[in-house]
Amino acid sequence: MSGGRIVFEDVSKFYGDVLGVNRVNLSIPPGITALVGPNGSGKTTLMNLITGLVRPTRGRISVLGISPDDPERLFKVVGYCTQFDSFPRGKTGYEFLYSSLRLHGKSHAEARELTMTALELTGMTDAAGRRVAAYSKGMRQRIKLAHAICHQPSVLVLDEPLNGLDPMARAEAIALFRSLAAEGLHVIISSHILHEVDCISDQVVLLNSGYVVAEGQIQAVRSEMNQEHPLQIMVRCSRPGALASRVFTLDHVVEVRMHADGRGLLASTRNPDLFYQALNQAVLEGLIDIESVAPADDDVHSVYQYLIGNEGEAL
Fold this sequence. Notes:
Layout: E1 6-15, E2 18-28, E3 31-36, H1 43-50, E4 58-63, H2 71-77, E5 78-81, H3 93-103, H4 108-121, H5 137-149, E6 155-159, H6 167-182, E7 186-190, H7 194-200, E8 203-208, E9 211-216, H8 218-224, E10 231-237, H9 240-247, E11 253-258, E12 264-269, H10 272-284, E13 290-295, H11 300-308
């Protein structure tokens, strides 16, 4: 698989007077990248630009060194699973994939083998002989995913790929995304299921009103925000009052609140590393016994809320 990048250089897309995205500069490495933002933030426009379905109003895009102006080369390396259903009339799941691969120029034997592999990876082998029109929503979502991966692309673009999947199918899909990313693929995902995005993403691109408001590993983005938005850390321990007295004297701690059940505290700090050192020292001195320590707002949803405020509630 290619080790290249997906690059946006000062890219803007307008639909008449309506802004899609504006002045986007990104360099997306292999792995799982999540596009996060409310409806209308520009996620689908970015995906359509990557896949060449729309062209930028200005700027340049390169997908592993390939321009979207060269669709024949681009479609060989990109697979796209849209959030919308669109299937040929009367086709079975197997026929849908097989005919697409034949259009890709695959021989009968190649198309058959690749079709069966994609059906197996997405758990659709048993339903391969049934017409797509009779599939449930979850099955249609999985056959779309099979269609996106059947030609073995290097870039996989997935618009809300977990919609309609039951918990077991969702877990299997996430495992598949991780497996593909481990092989070196670029897996671009948009999703409203933020706790799952947080667990599976190597990096995130946070969008609002057509602009990229932050990008990178979520922990790195959060670290850059610590001065303006101190990190909240929940500590469950013995003698939380004694710990509160200790940490409140630290310059980087801006607030300490006792938990309602009296068995822990919530501290806000501008320097998490120094805070964790202070906790270790308190344990070594025998001041406290720690039950658990966890950041209370170090996830993608909290970071997004910090960055754009109440507008993110539509996520």
